[in-house]
């Protein structure tokens, strides 16, 4: 054994023999503390807390929702339990057609709307009331009229009530509406064009030509805000056809989902016109959209039948080139993949200056945040470009997954979001083969989802939701990234062809209608040839992944003589938890040095919903499970195999290296593996990999960041920093600042990634160069302009090393910059200051109506301060002191405050900080809104950080001291880094 010879205490690392003699995965837990058990006082406290919560809930007559009970862990009260329970709409009535007329008053600056809607609906079950959704609008009670279709006799209305909790308007009738009959309900209403980026809302921007402020009105209805714009049955399964007319001043223009059929002058108002739009196909309310603006339209022809038009205030045709090129290519790709033509005649693409999400897939009218839609070669970074491409590919995929076939309810949001993320990974490599886009999939999706799923507070992909806050919280990495990851897993289980046929069947079967996950499973199932049937159903396998939170660690211990492998599964959690009995259907693919077919991802065995199995794997040297991490889980091996994999790391392709680094680092972080393994692996790789592969370095540095954050204010930080700078010396010194516009995509990504790291150290060549570039730029802003890819590192480093002068200078520059990309980089960099007073002054900009920072961007201010080791506690104090104001300011729609909360725990690892967080949570228990899940995750993260300090701080300290002689000698003896391994 390595450690013993080196005087390091590895006594807690089990030997291979120990592992093999006892298959219990718990044995491979290093440095385990004796189990303290739950003391009575803690239990009592927990019960008291639960009791108190129940009392509060009962007192106000509300219902407590319990989180789905997993294994034998105690059920936990969901923190948004204390929310009023909203109700779904009754299903007695089904809308068939909407006739909507709406006028936004922008130029008058009273920012209201005036509208009329007539809804034809069918009665499924007789009733004497009509219940539909409205919110933040006034109904003209006199105007409400109901009649049987084709009849002139009105049915009398006896009562009209608005319910604030379920956001419904109930119209009580004198007569009963008869089953199977059709009726019309019509009403007039006044709505509001707020600046909250929800419903039909206003956005404003400067017009440089006239030097005035301009307003436009645009929509964001997803998920539940169509009800703010017009009365409607605002649930995705109430599909209907819509005939829309939009009123506007004759100087402005409008667009909607469908092409314009005609324009009339408005009789009541001079210089106003009505635009009348063609009737839509059957669709859900959340996909309706209309825009009234002065934006410039760029129409262009392409090979597809679909007409594309880009609408933007940016006058530069350069900036829309990327989206103009890509949109038809993506549309054609999906049309041919799904074998279903895009059903609408056109797609409008609109850049909206104020926009809550990245983009919204409204059918035929995709809206974007400007910085996402436009791409300016001269001021955008390579990551901006990737983002634009990925978001567009996602939104276009939605035209099928979501728009044509819509999830029946928000519990299955992943059926559209997970799929659209997944489909990007098919479409983008077709357009940009050199990007190796698929290599990043596990980093962007699977590991992104792990960040939520590491914790007990995570949730299943499919989750029953009713309240508005819970619906909004579904738009998280579990729906998007875990959704995409389990879809990828399915495609590797059944094979690409069966998978594709299944999707095509699903889309054809449910087009213009709705579906749930069971219907997807059976569409895939029926396409599996009988000879290839699994031992069970797709439903049984996949339900284990979508109906349960978390993911397993598969522990694999092989007997070197017999080749027999003992495989067991257990939920992977970063915090120590009582035994958890969640089980999955785990597909196992494998390879070994004897059969190194790393792309043979079809499962060779299954852990069939049982805790453990045994199998035989032939290998002489190394062996590997879960090839290309197509299964949504991580693998722990016996020490013997870990050592072999560590030695051989360089022979594996980048995706396998990423997986080995990530799995071993995660296991070490959870105290299931000694840090000796991942740190040696990193060392071997960093030193031997002369090529600098982007994904490998990204994964490695990402995992190192966690350790860095934990140690950053500890006495051993310098030792750790020295180690990192020595092993990554090759990359850190090789990559320079000479960014060129024609550099390849991956070269640009590597430059951005590596320089950011190399400059974290004050006394480094990187920091020095960054400061020189900054000074040159100040003296000569035009000649020595800094290329976008290196702007962030140059600005952040110079702000960090500088003082008030540098800060004021950069902020001033921010207020004058016209580039939306540069503005974001500047906001991120201004948080790098080391001066608390500067950081606090900066935080104050969030709520002080700062005319220079858009609401949509001001959370960047918070994020940049929270990600600064000097700033994070200031950020927490700020959030605590301004909790109510922040929630009022940002509202709940885009989880902006929840994203701020999520930034809190990066550097927190003390019991004191945990207590502070818990008292913050308790003090605001009824006001957590859409931040509740986020805060629970933060608290769990800090708990796991504290545990990490307990179990790993000393061992990392020792490890670094022990290795010092090896990395110290690195420059003279090339192979010395492998020194410790040679003893194996
Ligand atoms: C807003 O202004 C328009 C146009 O002047 C007017 O017709 C409308 O009634 C006003 N709305 C409100 C609520 O005052
Ligand atoms: C209503 O009248 C229209 C036009 O006369 C006719 O096409 C339609 O079938 C009628 N609908 C019903 C439900 O009677
Ligand atoms: Zn989406």
TrEMBL record:
Ranges where the Aminopeptidase N-like N-terminal domain occurs: 95-287
Residues at which Zn(2+) binds: 394, 398, 417
Gene Ontology molecular function, alphabetical: alanyl aminopeptidase activity; metalloaminopeptidase activity; peptide binding; zinc ion binding
Required cofactor(s): Zn(2+)
Site (Transition state stabilizer) location in chain: 480
Keywords: Aminopeptidase, Cell membrane, Disulfide bond, Glycoprotein, GPI-anchor, Hydrolase, Lipoprotein, Membrane, Metal-binding, Metalloprotease, Protease, Signal, Signal-anchor, Transmembrane, Transmembrane helix, Zinc
Cofactor binding note: Binds 1 zinc ion per subunit.
UniProt domain ERAP1-like C-terminal: residue ranges: 622-943
Catalytic residue positions: 395
Family of the protein in this entry: Belongs to the peptidase M1 family.
Record-given protein name: Aminopeptidase
UniProt source species: Aquatica leii
Source organism phylogeny: Eukaryota, Metazoa, Ecdysozoa, Arthropoda, Hexapoda
